[in-house]
Amino acid sequence: MLLSLRIYETDPDAKPRPRNPFVDDVVGRVSAGMMQGRRPVALSTFRFCSDDPAVTDRVAELYGGTPEDYDENTSHVITDAVTVDAIVDGPDALRSSLILFGPSGPIHHCDGVEFLEPPEDRGTPCGCPPSLRERKDLARSGRGPKPHIELRFRLHDDPELGYFVLRTSSWSTVAELPAAQDTLEEINGPAKVRLVMEHVEYTTKAGRAVSYHYPALTVIGAA
Ligand SMILES: [Zn+2]
Questions:
Q1: How far is Cα 35 from Cα 21, in angstroms, rounded to an integer?
Q2: How do residues 4-41 score in pLDDT, each as one tens digit?
């Protein structure tokens, strides 16, 4: 008779999550902003962080900046780079969804139309409004989910360094996803993607000056 524990049958929430190949082997993360204390700060150049200081040292060699301890386990470097060339493995390297985070994790995770999690809600209508305007307003007020975009890549300048994940919640990046996704699917294999910190400046009809940066993704071609 096969002996096997049944403790997760009675408490499915306690079951360890399966390995996530998208992030398990990454050596570092890339972002267009950071937390300073409890305050999110936007940046105008790419920031890399890693739990391996050798990785941030190498990034600084390539893209400038001074590696520093960010917290106990993380080293980070705010580089001088506004452009980073990435190599992705294929169309699955680009993922996007909408997430509203609560104090202990996602409380609304959807594709804009249907829930993606928790598993029991997957595929059921999530109740987000259909118009982009309303989505943005809800997200801004903290009552609706924000974009959660991730690109898994290696550096074109040093692919041997390992995989990084760029993460952004910018609606401007969202606008570029359909074109990027289509091109990645056409290539359907390793591709070169140019990451650029785009600077947007304009004045609203009400006369308010708007200025921000966002990471733009341009698929250059097969790699
Ligand atoms: Zn939703």
A1: 26
A2: 788 888 887 787 776 677 777 899 999 998 888 888 88
